[in-house]
Design brief:
The complex is a heterodimer.
Chain A (H helix, E strand, L loop, with lengths): L1 H6 L6 E6 L5 H9 L3 E5 L6 E8 L5 E6 L11 H10 L11 E7 L3 H12 L5 E6 L1 H6 L3 E2 L1 H8 L3 E3 L8 H8 L18 H14 L4 H13 L14 H16 L4 H20 E2 L3 H10 L1 H12 L4 H20 L1 H21 L4 H18 L2 H17 L1 H14 L8 H6 L4 H7 L6 H10 L9 H12 L6 H28 L11 E2 L8 H35 L15 H4 L26 H4 L1 H13 L6 H9 L6 H9 L8 H14 L11 H13 L4 H11 L2 H28 L3
Parallel strand pairs in A: 1-4, 1-5, 5-6, 6-8
Antiparallel strand pairs in A: 2-3, 3-4, 7-9
Chain B lengths: L10 E6 L5 H8 L7 E7 L6 E5 L2 E5 L1 H4 L3 E3 L1
Chain lengths: 746, 73
Amino acid sequence: MSTSAASAHRANPVYALVGNPNCGKSTLFNALTGLKQKVGNYPGVTVERKVGTAYTQHGQPLTLIDLPGAYSLAARSPDEAVTRDVLLGRRGDTPMPDRIVCIADATNLERNLYLVHQILDLGRPVILVLNMMDLAAQAGLDIRVARLEHELGIPVIPCEAAHGKGLLELKLALSRHDLPLPRHAWDIPAALAPAVAELQASLTANDTKAPLVARAEALLLLTDPDPIRVSGSTPLSPETTRILDAWKKRWTADQTDWSGTLVAARYDAIGQLVQQVVVLPGETEHERHAAGSTLALSDKIDAVATHPLWGWVVFISIMATMFLAIFTLAGIPMGWIESLVAWIADHVSAFLPEGTLHDLVIDGAIAGVEGVIIFLPQILILFFFIGLLESTGYMARAAFIMDRVMSKVGLNGKSFIPLLSSYACAIPGVMAARTIEEPKDRLATILVAPFMSCSARIPVYLLLIAAIAGSTEVPLLTQVGLMLLMYGLGTGGAFFFAWFFKKTLLRGAPPLMIMELPPYRLPKLRDVLIQMWERGWIFVKRAGTVILALSIVLWFLANYPKPPEGAEPLPSQPIVDAVSPGPDASVTEVPAEPTPAEPEPEIDPLAYSFAGRAGHLLEPVIAPLGFDWRIGIGLIQSFAAREVFNSSMSVIFAVEETDDEDSNRERLRSAISAAQRRDGSKLFTPLVCLNLMVFYVFAMQCISTIAVVKRETGGWKWALFQLGYMTGTAWVACFLVYQIGRALGF
Amino acid sequence: MTLAQLAVGASATIRSYPQAGPAFTRLREMGLLPGTRITLVRTAPLGDPIEIQVRGYRLSLRKSEAALVEIAE
């Protein structure tokens, strides 16, 4: 008790905001702190840490920690585990908050009070906010706030966060110096009382917990048969663990349902409280109100939105809109970014003399920054939609509709949107996997998301399809057929590996799909925009730095060392000679290869660079796939982004670039079609082209995705694992396709 | 009779379900206790999961879990 009494006098007390998901906690947090928020991660876990500053009526700053939404302190997800650990003072990185603001949805008081009840056990100063009082009144619920205040002995503030009502009263309560401690007594079931006492004593003595916190933690340890631990959480002392195990063994032997008894006792206590506090409308009143309540309105919407036929129409329309927005709408700002960066590069270029520094700044740094911000439009658009879907309540319906499909491969309905977004770009897709609470489902989704053929693969597919067809004017059927084949391969691969990982590496408890379906609500645009902004910023700050660093490394590898003055072309493979004009050169627009006219053979610096040499080193590995060292260089360079393969091929086969993209592609197509192997046979046979496409379907050729996976999984381990298994899959698939194709005479 | 067999629109009282397993601890904490009245509101378009009304709010769970929840009309 002494700790809370002392902290109550601290000048700038730290408040924690706690509440169930969908109770309006974020709206309240945004309303209290405005844009004075800092978003980061709890070290070692991929759980968002939000801290903000609010000001009292007298301008006194208050620190607010917005803890992740939780239904219970008996945590079932990393998010809930962080909430529990912060409140119990188990995390070294976050001091135990001085005071707690509990937010409860007034329309659904009974279940919301479950968490509040657990928190009151802690014996800390608590303020209870009853949010959505207007909706409760609409549903005909009469909540006697004064009575609740009296029963709990803490301030209870009625509030409508969405309309800013009750904020002033809340701020006044926040700035009170004399926040009372809850008067909170409930009967712990007799069968469990000795165990609670013994655990409490041990937690006080061995885990240095204050007595009331120790009692609350003892109760939690008994509710949760398998408490999940996240990194950063202080483990229990061996003595406490021993006592807990001994009791569990005893209860298992005499068939005491300790967890169920405890939950039931708590709901009994809440039931009694609610009976005194909430006046339900009479029978006739009830019907009148029920018709106007949000639940009734929601039911009308759901009669369509989850209808066996119309449900699909709605679902597909929303998903198609979202997908097209990421896929096409994002192209417009992406074009602006490209022009802006080109403009900046031009101007910077004028100031810098030709040389290493010039190249580093223009081709390394500026191009690298572009490589980061180019993803922002897609990320912002996707998170705008996700925010909209979450704040209206449709997100839960989307998961409800898709769960059956996704459960076939061991995932749950929430994996659908991340996977769908990955068809546009895996980066927002991987970031969207945050909406999946179940850690194993989330990881499985992240691991397979890049198999979905993203927009960066399209230029590569188009080039290779043109090379197969022998012309950029490919018959529609061939083009569509081959494209569908590639999309199908990627999707099939993603589902196979999701299923495989969930059966092996990520096998665990049976999937948990116990999900609240909140009533539909009007979206809060402000909350949506704040979340969208935060996502974009986190991407730039965390993943952006890694992407930038990796792009500079790749630029260096492709440019250094420089060929010495007057050097001979690399002895084994003179690049330019490998390209003969070939029969396709009859296309009139294509200029003759410059080779014969040059006084001395042009030496491509790429061949001298580390990347060029790595192409040679790689050749023994990729030869069984039908690829030679020049394709190897393309594979290495396109590690930056898949579409770089095309420009890499342009450089290697010395294709002159013009402003006309169609003629560029035709030139490139005819150049690669003409390329020959050492023995004079065609390099880009249809089989090799097809195989390259297969390679790009499966291989993790994207440093930006690697950087985002690293950030979203909290370390390099899974990012590198993903790189390894995807590239491995690509190799095996290509090996099979090439060898079987050869055996069949292609 | 189990929750998975309940007809759409019908109400019932929870009798019992397994003690162990994280899913069932969570179901209890969400307010599904022996004696609690529930109504099956609807099923998802593909027949699974189901949506129930409990303690004035809506909850969805899979039929595989619902099949282990014993109910009485």
